Amino acid sequence: MSAETLPPPSPVEEPLAGRTDSRPPLPSGDRSGWGRLFAPTAVVAAALLVEWGLPHRQAVPPTRLYSGLLVGLLACTLVFAIVGAMRTRFSPWVRRNAPLVGGVAFLLALWNLVTGNLLPLPYFPGPQRVLLSLYDDRTMLAVSTYHSLRLLLAGYTAGVAAGLVCGILIGWFRTIRYWGMPLLKVVGPIPATAYVPLMMVLFPNHFLSGAALIALAVWFPVTMLTASGLANVPIAFLDVARTLGAGPRYLIFRVALPAALPSIFLGLFMGLGAAFLTLIVAETVGVSAGLGWYLKWQQGYLEYANVYAALVIMSVFFSGLMTLLFLVRDRVLNWQKGVIRW
Questions:
Q1: CA 168, 172, 176, 180: dihedral to nearest 10 degrees?
Q2: DSSP string covering 92-110, please?
Q3: pTM assigned to the model
Q4: Which end of the chain is more exposed for a tag (fewer CB within 10 A), N or C?
Q5: What architecture (CATH level 2) is domain 138-336?
């Protein structure tokens, strides 16, 4: 085809070629986009109407912590909606998280409506009573959270250290794998909570027995997935490193372990989930402080508002630690972006 017969360039190509802003333009007149931004504000306003306008069969405490929370949430969602409608660097973040905020507000309204009119006290307190318990018992809850964090970190650190050592030995050395894998298959699948009597005999100190119980729960998934990751390292990686003169130590710590990091992080996540479950059991069998101990103590006095307050603290506490581990994973495995789907 000659130069004279080439079609003229599209008029859309020149503006795109000279454009330096990589952010997509905000749609003008996009009703679905505007509705997505202001939907959380509408849901929070509906939650306020449920709180102020509908009668409640449950006796509501005189304080208005829940109403104040909804008013603050209404102001925040309105500000976020205005920011999301403007062309700022925060607009994509606001648009992405607006449905999540609306979902939380909807669940709060549903919780308030159902507990206020259908479910009986003291087993199903409303959000107002739970917020009041969080405020009145904040000192005890803070102390319990500190003790749980200390016990969890001690057991998780010990379990990760033991799991990495055992996983490297089993995954790299054939002789150790021959003897260690059957033992791992026999001991590992037993729930860590089944070892409570044994740990209380081996460690008379309640803190040490709880930490050992958590470490045992973490040890199995970390060991299994570390060994599996090392065993599945492509043999070509090792052959190339040996050709370049790498020794055994270099092969383990500079070739095999970095290649097995995705599998190792999977074991860390599974171990953290197992540690959360074991923590609550460990704190109910002798530990004199912690969120599990507080939960059992308040349940014995039928203070279910305090029980739900402890559950709220647990959810924030556990999800925060899981998010922190995700951030570490994203930082260490940054090279995976563009290679696999995140």
A1: 60
A2: HHHHHHHHHHHHHHHHHHH
A3: 0.79
A4: N
A5: Orthogonal Bundle (1.10)
